[in-house]
Specification:
The protein is of the alpha/beta class. It is 34% helix and 21% strand. It has helices at residues 58-69, 95-101, 106-121, 137-144, 163-167, 186-197, 215-218, 224-244, and strands at residues 23-27, 30-35, 44-49, 73-77, 128-134, 152-156, 173-180, 203-212. The chain is globular and about 45 Å long.
């Protein structure tokens, strides 16, 4: 494994303040959050694969709106069909049971990803497509970073990524990592770096101190180091997409 399976830290975080600017629509039968750039262009687009909190968590909607504000048509498909984990679940919530019995795996998620990409590249006319994966979603950035699918990838604190999935990417990949992260700890970061060094694709890995797993989307913004790291991880993603999507 290039990163470990999810744990309780994948559902811990702070709900951010703000009002979403996008809207929930459907791609086929899948609820999807849409956020458009000011010029309404869909030529350059980003699809966000969420953590286990899903698309209705305001934080990911605000992140999608931020990408849109930077010129990228952004969509966030519901990979879980609404069956998500609540933020900061109560002590009696059995997360590991949810992971083992309820969490969707590739046979359920891959068709959603495929349908989303097909809709974007077909009906909506997307020319260049980036993938963003937070935690659980990082796996699907790696799985779909292929010719004709995702052109560019970015993931923050990924989980559930297999060695084979990372070895199989065919496009540029940027990774934002937390200093304290049992899902993507130092040994997994080094393993991932060793894999990427042997591959003929551009890559980047930034490590942020004083933050934990989930910081790029669920950071406590009242803490200066966490706020700084979250903002820098987002700017990392935008700079990466500006380099490899806006051609």
């Amino acid at each position: 494994m290039a990163s470990n399976p999810p744990g309780r830290c994948c559902a811990i975080g702070v709900k951010h303040e703000g009002e979403a600017q996008g809207e929930i629509k459907k791609i086929g039968d899948v609820r999807t959050y849409f956020s458009y750039p000011e010029n309404k262009s869909t030529q350059n687009a980003i699809v966000i694969f969420t953590d286990i909190l899903g698309i209705d968590f305001i934080n990911v909607q605000l992140v999608a709106d931020q990408f849109a504000a930077n010129g990228y048509f952004t969509v966030v498909p519901d990979l879980f069909n609404g069956n998500v984990v609540p933020v900061n679940p109560p002590a009696d919530f059995d997360l590991m049971k949810w992971v083992q019995t309820e969490m969707p795996h590739p046979p359920k998620v891959d068709p959603i990803v495929e349908a989303t990409i097909r809709h974007l590249r077909g009906e909506l006319g997307v020319k260049r497509l980036g993938g963003v994966g937070y935690c659980f979603g990082g796996k699907y950035v790696c799985r779909w970073l292929k010719e004709g699918k995702l052109d560019v990838g970015y993931t923050a604190h990924p989980s559930f990524v297999s060695t084979e999935e990372l070895e199989g990417i065919k496009g540029p990949l940027s990774i934002a990592a937390a200093e304290t992260d049992q899902i993507f700890p130092a040994e997994k970061r080094r393993e991932s770096e060793d894999i990427l060094q042997k591959m003929n694709v551009p890559y980047q890995m930034n490590l942020f101190s004083d933050v934990e797993h989930g910081f790029a989307v669920r950071a406590d913004l009242s803490k200066k180091p966490a706020k700084f790291a979250k903002e820098q991880a987002f700017l990392q993603a935008v700079a990466w997409f500006d380099e490899y999507i806006k051609q």
